[in-house]
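Hey all, quick one. A colleague (J.T.) asked me to put the protoporphyrin IX containing FE job into the tracker so the inputs and the structure tokens live in one place instead of scattered across chat threads. No bug as far as I know, just bookkeeping. Sequence used:
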Amino acid sequence: ARAVPDVLSDAFTADPYSAYRVLRRDAPLLWHEGMHSYIISRYEDVKKAFKSDEFTTANYDWQLEPIHGRTLVQMSGREHAVRRALVAPAFRGRTLREQFLPVIEENARDLIDGFRTAGSADLVDEFATRFPINVIVDMLGLDKADHPRFHRWYTAMIAFLGNLTQDPDVAAAGIRTREELADYMLPVIRQRRDNLGDDLLSTLCTAEIDGTRMSDDDVKAFCSLLLAAGGETTDKALASTFANLLRHPDQLDDVRRDRSLIPRAFAETLRYTPPVHMIMRQPAQDVTVSGGTIPAGSTVTCLIGAANRDGNRYSDPDSFDIHRTELDTATAFTAAADHLAFALGRHFCVGALLAEAEVTVAINQLLDAMPDLRLADGADPVERGVFTRGPAELPVVFTPAA
Ligand code: HEM
């Protein structure tokens, strides 16, 4: 039998895309003893796991509960639908355009001002890991002076969530972060209930479920989820969009000339190098997938990065092409363009439009401030990670602003 790659091996982490090819072809439904999970990798199968009512969210509590408490991602049915409906409007439409777009623009400008005169920067460390967190802190109406503190908490949080080797120091730092965030947020939430504003925290504080307000702990858990769900994903999506464009200078030139291509560059990045590679689901009854049966109640790992490069869905799937016609089948908006990076169905990413706005503003401002932005000589931005992936660093050079 042909060797089937192990998704937790070092070889896989170094180049998952080659492994995905083998999995899609030879082992589209695979049991992984170590993960205690089935693994699926074909586009149609992953799409079905996200969209079909035969699947619900998996039991994520072991991973998310210790750091966030109970969040949307762990909920199903009515509990999920009601809470999601409370928060979703803040991330789209007029609220996004009129209230939060200025926040996004200001934060991009502040960060770029920090390095535009330097002539060189690491866009991961100096921009991508900071920008989405700063935006969320400001959307919540918290103190801008606390951006560095939130950046520290965010870093500890994502280290905790990605702690596959169960390093005890990383685990302890994560738990400490949960406590520090609670100590910070709970008094702010109590104060905000007495002094409502037009910020996202006020929206969360006044949201009612069946006539009952969310508890202080619920609001805190939601803020905590936003930092991780809206931070790490957008951080990696931003860095990957920059990296893909910098590695394809002809396509970067197209984007420089025609900025309306930015959402396409973002959508193609989400297809080609998605930030989230693995999402778990669980079938309520036995289901058939790629000719095999997944028993009710088992965990299924959906390989988004594999599904997004399925040759049965995309032509020439292993090349990055912002002009590919498959992007024209955009559903509600360009960034969502039919890839699976935001999942689909009931848990489809609440922040997808916010992410598109953030990436669009960031790329526009970077290209305005640094028209000759390019990769530093010899730089080879390598993607890292297992559950989530993105470049570890992105050294660029440019003519410094006067
Ligand atoms: C859900 C990806 C940006 C907030 C999800 C899910 C994925 C995803 C795959 C489904 C999780 C699951 O079903 O287990 C992404 C990507 C992003 C991004 C690739 C950036 C490019 C954001 C932003 C926010 C956000 C900016 C908000 C600040 C959420 C929330 C959920 C979610 C709250 C839970 C939705 C639910 O369970 O109903 N995201 N996300 N995301 N995302 Fe995003």
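Adding what we noticed when we looked at it: The mean pLDDT is 91. The longest helix spans residues 216-247.
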